[in-house]
Write a structure and sequence with these properties.
Strand 4, helix 6 and strand 5 form a beta-alpha-beta unit. With 147 residues, this protein is mainly α. The relative contact order is 0.18. It has a 3-stranded parallel β-sheet with strand order 1-4-5. The chain is built from 7 helices and 5 strands, in the order ββααααβαβαβα. Helix 1 packs across helix 4.
Length: 147
């Protein structure tokens, strides 16, 4: 008998690509770096922030950190583009109603996920949340799923 469902967040339980993309583009523009949404999506979507910023020429660690933190600040301003995968969420809630546990396991940023979950009104309806702060290695490492 299945007792636990593990869900990824970004791109599985919620469509967050537009919000992440727009937040990055805005944070970069504030730093004088022009980047189109299409460029970002086709070349860098899913790449870790520090690696992405180094690749586009932000070599100073303090500048990378400032842009990363600003992107996190801006992310909630684009939540109007975030959509919940309703069929998956309904299935997960039916599973919970029948005694199962539902965890969200993602190597995304905890604050980003927690804020998006709150916006979607689902933050109280999961049994656990494991994020990048809980693991040393990001996906594709299986560490997050083995904890």
């Amino acid at each position: 008998q299945i007792k636990l469902i593990i869900l990824d967040f970004d791109g599985t339980l919620a469509s967050t690509a537009d919000a992440h993309t727009k937040a990055y583009i805005s944070a970069l523009q504030e730093s004088g770096i022009t980047f189109s949404e299409e460029e970002y999506r086709s070349q860098f979507f899913g790449v870790r922030c520090s690696e992405f910023l180094q690749t586009i020429g932000v070599s100073n660690r303090e500048d990378r950190e400032r842009i990363r933190l600003r992107k996190i600040e801006l992310y909630p301003t684009f939540f109007n583009t975030v959509r919940l995968n309703e069929p998956l969420w309904n299935f997960a809630q039916d599973f919970r109603a029948n005694g199962g546990k539902v965890w969200i396991v993602s190597t995304g940023q905890k604050d980003n996920i927690a804020n998006a979950m709150h916006y979607l009104g689902i933050d109280e309806d999961v049994d656990g949340l494991l994020t990048s702060v809980d693991v040393a290695e990001p996906k594709p490492s299986p560490e997050a799923f083995l904890n």
